[in-house]
Each structure stands twice: as structure tokens, then as C-alpha cells.
Design goal:
The chain is of the alpha+beta class. Helices cover about 20% and strands about 30% of the residues. The strands form three sheets. The protein has a nine-stranded mixed beta sheet with strand order 8-13-5-6-7-12-11-10-9. It has a two-stranded antiparallel ribbon with strand order 1-2. The radius of gyration is 21 Å and the shape is globular. The relative contact order is 0.14.
Amino acid sequence: VQGDGAAIRAWLEGLGPEQLGEARFLDLPETSNNILLALEEGTHQARARVRHPARTYVVQPGDFFFDIAYNFCFPQYQLERVNPDVNSGAIDVGMVLNIPTIDVLFPHPLVPNKRIEIDLPTQTLYAYEGQEVVMEMRISSGMSTTPTIAGQFQILFKEENAYAQRWRLDMPYFMGIYEEGPGYYNGIHELPITAGGYRLSASVLGWPASFACIIVGVGDAEALFEWADVGTLVRIHGVAPGTPTWQETLDRIVEPYVPPAGEP
């Protein structure tokens, strides 16, 4: 079956909010190409690529740059990238900030029929295939001083044995979900291990104890790592509870990396 590219594009251009939802539009070249390929191959489905517009925000009294980013479900770094001339530590009331499109958080096509849901209030992770929960596990999210951002993300990459140099931490079964600075990613990983060989206690699961990553238990991390593909949707909901003063947390057990003299 041969498709008429111009006719397909014209039809796609006629789709509006009623079909796509508010503040959404189609990536016309990619979607029309997918439809043409599906017709050529004789398949019955083609994937549409939905995009989202960038926005702006007017700074209000009491606003802080980090909080604005957090409320829009972005790491601060993403706001800094689209506001290069703004000093994030000195914003003024009435200033107009650029808010990036959520598409910057989704460089990969979404994996169909798989998603990860993380509920911060209950510190629980659910892995879904379609509407069925295939895994459920306790987690430890970011402490109040280094909170995990709620929002929609995806698995960006997977690294079986990742290393966080600034904290000298081994992070087994690491899956990056968002970039919090140039080359620095927060993600999901197993209970980390310090430079001295101490593994963070499993007692933290159920309480915020991390520097913003989602920590899961031994065994659970490997199972999730093997199940999740790059591109899998990750949804993080709600606000984490406070951490009891008696609870072990990462800041109490790590020894931050101190670069040798002369090293930047």
C-alpha cells in the first residue's frame, strides 16, 4: 500500500486539542514518516510523536529559582540552560523566565506498555506492564535538603556499576532518569557502597536518605535493571516525608571527594 505524503500531512495538520489534548502538537515530519512506513509494511499502527511547547513564568514575591524549577517538575539545571543570562541566585520580582518544553526530558522514544511509578509519600516503586503491576518495592528517595523531583522522566541510560566521584560511591544497577548538572545524573540504583566498603543500610528503605536518587534494595535493583529498557517512562508523584533523626542517611556515611592540589 502506498500512502500520499501530502494528504497524510494535511490530515495531521487538522488535528487539534480535541484529539491531542491542550498544549500538545504533533511532530509532523516524524509522525507522517511513521505512517508512511506503516503503510508500506502493511502494519495497522503507527506511532505519533507528540511535542509540548515551551512556556514562560513571571517571578513572584518569595520565589526562589530552585523552587520554580521544582514546581514545574524540572531540575534547576534545565532552567539555567534556557535562561543563560539569569543569575539563579538573584532573581527579581516581575522577571520573565523561560520554562523549557518537557520534551528535553524525553530524548528517547517511549517504550510501549512499560512504566515505573514512584510514590514519594509512601516511598514505594511500582513497575507496570500495561495495567498490571509486575514489581513493587520499597525505596529511599532524596532527603529534604536534596529532594527527588516529582515529575515525568524516562530511563536515559543504564550502567551496571556506576560511580559517583563527588561522594566516592559505588551505585550498582544505575539507571539515569534526569540530568541535574552537566554530566551529572540522578537515577535509580541499588543501596550504594562507600569508598570504605560500607553499604548503606537496608533500614533506609521507606525513608528519604539519598542525595536525590531513588535507592532500592539488593535484588530488587537488579530485577528492575533487567526489566526496564532505555526509554521506559518514569513517573514520580507527591512529596516525600521527613526523615527521622535516628535514621541513617547518605550524608552521614560518605566522605566527599577532595581533588588533589592543582586539580580543578
